[in-house]
Specification:
Radius of gyration: 19 Å
Helix content: under 10%
Shape: globular
Subcellular location: Cell outer membrane
Organism: Shewanella salipaludis
Strand content: over 45%
Strand order of the largest sheet: 1-2-3-4-5-6-7-8-9-10-11-12
Distance between the termini: 18 Å
Oligomer: single chain
InterPro entries: Channel_Tsx, Channel_Tsx-like, Channel_Tsx-like_sf
Structural class: mainly beta
Protein name: Nucleoside-specific channel-forming protein
Main location: membrane
Length: 279
């Protein structure tokens, strides 16, 4: 759901599922271990950033995974775009377009509660983490090669319940430099249950970058802040899920909306349709 031309992360939405908080007793670090994996068939419409000349729609297959093992809480996914390698009038992943075929997000967090054997919970904060995030696409040294380092926590939020929150410093691996910060949050809230035990959920995420250096590049200028937010409505059973997501963008990836010679659109709304099989 969160690729190089949309995001991210993504929030990731399922990261909020990843991990029950440790109890105060840390004697058995693997007592609450678990893992999960699912495949999502996706279609996006209006994804940003996009070049109006080439289109803004594509299909993709997403392998999503996560779990908990000892001190490590993990979420990640791999996206493969334009599965049939087709050319279409509105496609932004057409063959020959120069876009990457693959995008990957890898989001390991390391429980400080478990590392130090202490219950660091206080008030609504359930567990504290050393948080990392890596974004990669298939372009070596030219595309998305970014990493984020910081602190995180599982926080109990009214109605939403446990919400993953992280504050990162952003390191650009292409330019070998630190450039600003990112706040991320993600949630997964079942809110209506059917008699057959399937349910509806409100799930989503927010990724907001700030404190970055502006860049007046004549081709693709960059701003000091920007991000995106995803609101998803999903039906879940034990084995399947169907969903619709609405995502809002504001200068996403710090790209100035319609700026420079290229004129990429980095602000607006997009729609996502998904069908999921759970393993």
């Amino acid at each position: 759901m969160k690729n190089v031309k949309s995001l991210a992360l993504a929030a990731t939405a399922v990261a909020a599922i990843s991990g029950n908080a440790f109890a105060a007793d840390r004697t058995d670090l693997h007592a609450t271990d678990y893992k999960w994996m699912q495949f999502n068939a996706m279609y996006s419409i209006g994804e940003k950033p996009d070049n109006p000349a080439s289109g803004d729609q594509h299909n993709y297959l997403e392998m999503e995974f996560g779990g908990r093992s000892g001190i490590v809480d993990l979420y990640g996914y791999v996206d493969v775009f334009n599965l049939a390698n087709e050319s279409s009038q509105h496609g932004d992943k057409n063959p020959g377009s120069g876009t990457s075929k693959i995008f990957m997000k890898f989001n390991p967090r390391f429980s400080l509660d478990a590392i130090f054997g202490k219950d660091l919970s206080v008030g609504p904060i359930q567990e504290v983490y050393f948080s990392t995030l890596f974004n990669w696409d298939g372009l070596n040294g030219e595309g998305v090669n970014s990493t984020f380092w910081g602190v995180g926590a599982d926080v109990m939020v009214p109605w939403l319940g446990k919400t993953g929150m992280n504050l990162y410093g952003y390191y650009d691996m292409n330019n070998k430099e630190w450039n600003g910060y990112q706040f991320s949050a993600n949630w997964f809230k079942p809110f209506y249950f059917f008699d057959n035990k399937s349910f509806l959920s409100f799930q989503g995420y927010i990724d907001y970058q700030f404190g970055a250096d502006a860049d007046d590049n004549m081709f693709v200028p960059k701003t000091t802040s920007g991000g995106n937010i995803f609101f998803g409505l999903y039906w879940h059973s034990d084995r399947y899920a169907l969903g619709y997501g609405l995502k809002g963008f504001k200068d996403v990836y710090l790209l100035e909306d319609k700026g420079g010679i290229v004129g990429l659109e980095s602000t607006g709304w997009s729609h996502y349709l998904s069908a999921t099989y759970k393993f």
